[in-house]
Amino acid sequence: MADFDLELDARGLNCPLPILRAKKSIQQLGAGQVLRIVATDPGSVKDFEAFCKQTGNELLASTQQGGEYRFDIRKPA
User: Fold this and answer.
1) Gap between the Cα atoms of 17 and 33, Å rounded
2) Residue 24: enclosing H or E segment and its boundaries?
3) What are the residue boundaries of the structural domains of the chain, listed by start?
């Protein structure tokens, strides 16, 4: 079983598109569910940290592999 409930493929998108799409995707989730975002924009690391601080969502993980960045964000209960 995956450790996330919904995956957003934001590869090839530049700021602010990954954040805008993540905002939309998180609205589809229930409290406590996890959204995984896969992005290629290096600026997305700082963007998602700021996004979580501003929105109250919890950034569970932020990893980089090759040219891809993965973020696991939990919607607050």
Assistant:
1) 22
2) helix 17-28
3) 6-74
**Which amino acid appears at position 37 of this protein?**
I
* Active-site residue, 15 included: yes
pLDDT one digit per residue (tens) for the chain, 77 residues: 679 999 999 999 998 999 999 999 999 999 999 999 999 999 999 999 999 999 999 999 999 999 999 999 999 98
pLDDT of residue 77: 87
Q: 16-25: buried (b, 16+ CB within 10 Å) or exposed (e) per residue?
A: eebbebbeeb
Q: Does the domain spanning 6-74 belong to CATH 3.30.110.40?
A: yes
Catalytic one of 5, 11, 13, 15: 15
